[in-house]
Amino acid sequence: MLNGRPRRREELLFHLGTRSPRELWLVIVDASASTRRHQALSDAKGLLAQLFDDAYRQRARLALLTASGAVPKWQVQGLKASSGLRNWLDGLGAGGGTPLLAALGEAGQWLTARRKRFPAEQQRLLVVTDGRLREWSALPVLECPGLVVDIERGPIRLGRSKVLAAQLQTEYRHIDELFPG
User: Fold this and answer.
1) DSSP letters along 20-56, please?
2) Which band of pLDDT confidence, cut at 50, 70 and 90, is reported for residue 10?
3) Whether domain 25-178 has CATH 3.40.50.410
4) Average per-residue pLDDT in the chain?
5) Domain ranges of the chain
6) Can you tell me whether residue 170 is helix, strand or coil?
7) Any residues with CB less than 8 A from the CB of 101 and at least 6 apart, and which?
């Protein structure tokens, strides 16, 4: 360059390698009827609000999948975190069954396809659930670091979220560890 002006074609090109790889946070929220008990989903909303704010500040991309009713539903797929997520979160209610296993399977396929498109992207997984699933067989391999946040509350806890985390090969935390009452 001469006085800040490019002299060769190579000096005009944008070099992608100069930027740090972007992050993708895949969040799966169990909003089944059982999460209404003991304010579990309400507490999870506080955690999610903080997560969305952190994603916005860190310029991370978000993918958001809800597991309630009969089938999982994508809310956002790989977009930058925005204030619109707050409106979705305010309107999030619990009900229906727990299609969490279907959500995990769909998430696994989506992550694999995304990894092919964005190989440098750092993917992370967060599963927010009370673990109240009847039974499950083999779980998909998601091939990214993850965390299962257990929102199960009440006097009788089944502890299935801990088993789920172990089988997914992710970390496990109870929401009370993250937000001590």
Assistant:
1) PPPEEEEEEEE--GGGGGGGHHHHHHHHHHHHHHHHH
2) low
3) yes
4) 84
5) 25-178
6) coil
7) 133, 136, 139
